[in-house]
Amino acid sequence: MIQVENLVKRYGKFTAVDGVSLDVPAGEIHGFLGPNGAGKTTTIRIIAGLLKPTSGRVAIAGHDLASEAEAAKGALGFIPDRPFLYDKLTAGEFLRFHAGLYGLEGDGVETRVAELLGLFELTKWEGELLESFSHGMKQRLVMCAAFLHRPRGVLVDEPMVGLDPRGARLIKDVFRQMAKKGVAILMSTHTLEVAQEMCDRISIILNGKIIAHGTVGELRAASGDGDEELTPVFLRLTGGSGFQEIPDAL
Amino acid sequence: MKHAFPYLLLPTFWAARNRARRREPGDALRATLFGGIGIFVMVSIFAVVFWLTWQLLDYEELGEYLVRLGLSWLFLTFLSFVAFSAIVTSLSTFFLSEDLRLLLAAPVPPDRLFHSRFARTVGQASWMVVVFMVPVLLGIGMVRCAGWSYYATIFATIVPFVLIPSAFGAIVTLALVNIFPARRARDILMLMGLLFAVTLVLLLRFIRPERLLSVQSLPDVTAFFATLQSPVTPLFPSFWAGESLFTALQGGVDGLHLGALWTTALALVVIARAAYHRLYFVGWSKAQEARKARFGKLRGLEVLARMLPASPASRVILVKDLKVFLRDTTQWSQLLLLVALVLVYLYNFRILDLDRIPYMSGLVKNAYAFVNLAMAAFVLSAVAVRFVFPAVSAEGSSFWIVRTAPVSMRLFLWSKFWTGLVPVLLLAEGLTIVSNEFLGVDLFLKVLCAAAVFFMTFALVGLAAGMGAQFPRFSAENVTQVAGSYGGIAFMILAVLFILVEIALLAWPSSVYLWHQFQEVPLAPRHYLQMAVAFSAALSICVATFWLPMRKGVRALESLG
After folding, report:
1. Which among A45, A103, A129 is the nearest to B295, CB-wise?
2. How many A×B Cβ pairs under 8 Å?
3. Residues of B with Cβ-Cβ distance to A49 under 8 angstroms
4. What are the angstrom distances between the C-alpha of A236 and each of A103, A211, B91, B475?
5. pLDDT one-digit tens code per residue, B3-36
6. 0.90 surpassed by complex ipTM
7. B557: which of A156, B184, B393, B409 fits an S-S bond (Cβ 3.0–4.6 Å)?
8. What confidence category does residue B182 fall into, taking pLDDT thresholds of 50, 70 and 90?
9. Which is nearest to B498 in space by CA: B534, B549, B541, B450?
């Protein structure tokens, strides 16, 4: 459903993304992990259509992002890490605006808007300006917008940032339900517990290259460790913790 | 914190230094243009003041009186300006600045924070006044061959003079924020300021100062001076500043008024600091609270948009843009100034009495029609650079919403174009038709100008929307910054060139036609050919000016990233 082939992004001499390939089939939650500056957000932004790749191909639901941009984007829901919205619109107006961008019209829009606002516990805020929303509320509203047009693929950059435990639990449940219904979810995150708990498969990126991918079990085997937790596996694969320097620094 | 308060101003200086080191495209052009305009204005002010003071030397006592009155008026005007500016600036420096959270969380003694913020307020609120006041005072001093003590008094007067309204402004703001939330207070102040400016513009125009130049109104001059004298009260710091400088001009030292200035300035700073201790933290806390603002639902816009023959995406972009514009006081309130300028513009044509030139009135009227067309086009360029050019940049950090949606950049930019075109076209046609009616120009020119302004509006709005997409500033804090950016200035230069070429292409064949009509001589076939070629060239340039930037703008948006 979300296919990425040999993606390369260069900024002058610096290569931010170096031949990344990913394939997220329908119904899969795919974790995309990596340390800061590894190329995660650049890759996510290219798949969302916000950055032009130097080379490589992205396809959403079989539509090439370069040649059939509108069809590809129409099949995708994007949830960025920082929810910049139009402060002078209300939550309801923002969702109706979003529906219009995705070509949705008619009475169905109102029903869908009410349904999603209810699901994300924002119904009583429907008529309030977004400038009065907290970060977490904006994040939940962006999720409403991303699911409004019933996308076949969802792209999420750091889904849990700014959410309270109740909100985080809600998002996890929503993602699981959507995956069950056949939606492909590609999720970039730093929260390894979330990745371990939710993802069917995981890809780890370092210095712009995918250095490991597979299920959590396969990654454990690849790291040559019998650890139950994903954190030590991730640290080993991405070059150690560097913790020995901390006592001196303190 | 061990350091004295200027330490807290270091980030501002470092940021300015880093900005100066890291040049961006267009910086040189912008610096040359704005610097050139600034120097030109300062030199002009100096020249005008120098000339006026020189003329007044011939009138001895009356001249002395007028210089004294002029100084008081100058300081009174600047006093009100700095006071208002300080109220608005204090909101920003004391309550809305991004770095305040960092500073308030740090162990910074309150006095030092107050002094650093107050220093920023004084600098930001008064630099422009000081820049324009200096050439005036230098001009007066040089004509009157003033000694060094006059120039020392300028410094000794200006410092307390700007401290007084700045401290007053800070006190008012500290009180205001305890009544209204900071952001709402800023909206209210912006609106008040604009209303103040609008009233001033209208008042100054409608009292028709040009009547004073007429010999018949000479008896009114005494009454005029009496009116000028009335607001100059000895209780105002502006009077003290004027008197101090006037005494210094004559070689003396006015210790009383200088003392009054300094003691008042220092007392007000102390009061402002006390107000800060008492009111600041409560006000700051209020400013942080989320508010439920009152705002218009504007449902009528959605109903109107549904009637338009456009795609759902175009309709929702239109509705979104209009709602965001109408709910943002800082944006829509600028329309008030525009309305005032339009009224003054039309009023000028209404009172223009060209029939006083008996033989040439017809010719002058027709020539004025082209001046009017050029002026209307300049007005609409100014409107376009302020309202249409920033349309793409106004998406700001929220642009990801449109870019990740299945909406082509062509549709997006054309939505921006149509949203800008309709109001600008109505304004341009309204201005041209009404002012030509007031002028009483020939019917041929009325039709020609109305048609010309129609196509020129398409061209200028297309140029503004297209160039706005080619040179976006998504990180700009407000639309004024976008309008003053490299792209905005480039747009204005191109717009002026376009208008001049268009006027030349329209005026030349029209003058040939009107001349033959005036002489009652039929036009030769070659004249018709020349007219057709000139009008076609004007139309072609309009189409190119509209089409090419739009195409380039779409490509620029498509290749973003």
Report:
1. A129
2. 91
3. 403-404
4. 47, 12, 51, 39
5. 777 777 888 788 777 777 776 666 777 778 778 8
6. no
7. B409
8. low
9. B541
